[in-house]
Amino acid sequence: MRRLSICAECRREVLWTVTDAGKRLAVDSEPSPDGNSAVYRDGTGTQRSRRPSEELPLKGWERLHMPHVVTCPGRRRAPAPAPARPGVLPPGVSDLAAYRLKGRGQS
After folding, report:
1. What is the tens place of the pLDDT at every residue in 69-92?
2. Quick check: 15 and 27 in contact, CB under 8 A?
3. Bridge-based pairing state of the strands 4-6 and 24-28
């Protein structure tokens, strides 16, 4: 029987697997034809996952699942905007851009 967990970010069910490298990977609980992780249960009952390839294609006992980090709506955060440069420098601050360009290329 599969043990499902709940994602802390989006509250959806995820299935925890162990990759060929021994790392833990959360995949969506339902198989997906667009997935890129082949999931199967080994002889000890552990859910395992691997990346199918041309040399090792998907086997009959494996199902394709999508890694949860790709589909989790809680993980999709917009990157922080870059801080804007002030148009006017505060008193006591010098703009060194003109001096930096002046010395470049001259040896």
Report:
1. 999 988 766 666 766 666 788 888
2. yes
3. unpaired
Residues 47, 28, 65: CA angle, nearest 5 degrees: 70
58 CA to centre of own chain: 23
For residue 27, count other CB atoms closer than 10 A to its CB. Answer: 26
One-letter-per-residue 3-state SS of the chain: CCCEEECCCCCCEEEEEEECCCCEEEEECCCCCCCCEEEEECCCCCEEEECCCCCCCCCCCCEEECEHHHHCHHHCCCCCCCCCCCCCCCCCCCCCHHHHHHHCCCC
Q: In 3D, which of 13, 12, 19, 24 has the Cα closest to residue 38?
A: 19
Q: What percent of the chain has pLDDT over 70?
A: 81
| Average pLDDT, integer, range 45-66 | 94
